[in-house]
Amino acid sequence: MSVKVGDPAPDFTLLSQSGDSVSLNDFRNQKSVVLYFYPKDDTPGCTKESCEFRDQYEVFKAAGAEVMGISADSPESHQKFATKYNLPFTLLSDKDNQVRKLYGVPSTAFVLPGRVTYVIDEQGIVKNIFNSQFNFKGHIEESLKTLQAA
User: How far, in Å, CA of 150 to CA of 133, rounded?
Assistant: First the structure.
């Protein structure tokens, strides 16, 4: 399956860095969700991207959105990563890459898990998809542009 703009975002339930189960449907009819898939905790590119989301987190909240990051790392790894970089948002553990597959997030060069961000509105509809392995700031800029245009 490959999710496209205009599609309903597939629901999922994953464990967060605090060990809580979090479902996409928890946010339905309450707020938009910026869902960013990234390759690995505490690597240079993923740290840069996550810290950019951190630095703009209040802007996302003011735009009525929650930010959530997803990688295959464990909740324990996410906890260390979030604590080390003071990340104020939820990181979710997709250890079997089931949600990554559900959304159709491609790999880069067939090996590196892709870096894709989805902006999902309050009704659960995908409003924007930004796919770039190396344009870390673009994920934040495109997401904010989509939210602020709504």
Answer: 26
Q: pLDDT tens digit string along 71-129? A: 999 999 999 999 999 999 999 999 999 999 999 998 876 677 889 999 999 999 999 99
Model pLDDT for residues 119-129, shown as the tens digit of each residue: 999 999 999 99
Q: Which two tokens stand for residue 28?
A: 């339905």
The letter for the amino acid at 143 is S
| pTM higher than 0.85 | yes
**d(Cα 97, Cα 105) in Å, to the nearest integer?**
10
Sign of CA dihedral 126, 131, 133, 138: negative
Q: Quote the CA–CA distance of 97 and 12 in Å, as a whole number.
A: 12
CB distance 69 to 102 below 8 Å: no
Contacts 24+ apart (CB under 8 A), 57-63: 57/88, 57/89, 59/144, 60/34, 60/143, 60/144, 60/147, 63/32, 63/144, 63/147, 63/148
Please state, in angstroms and rounded to a whole number, the distance separating the CA atoms of residues 40 and 77. Answer: 9
- The residues annotated with a catalytic role in the active site are 46
Start-to-end CA span in the chain (Å): 26
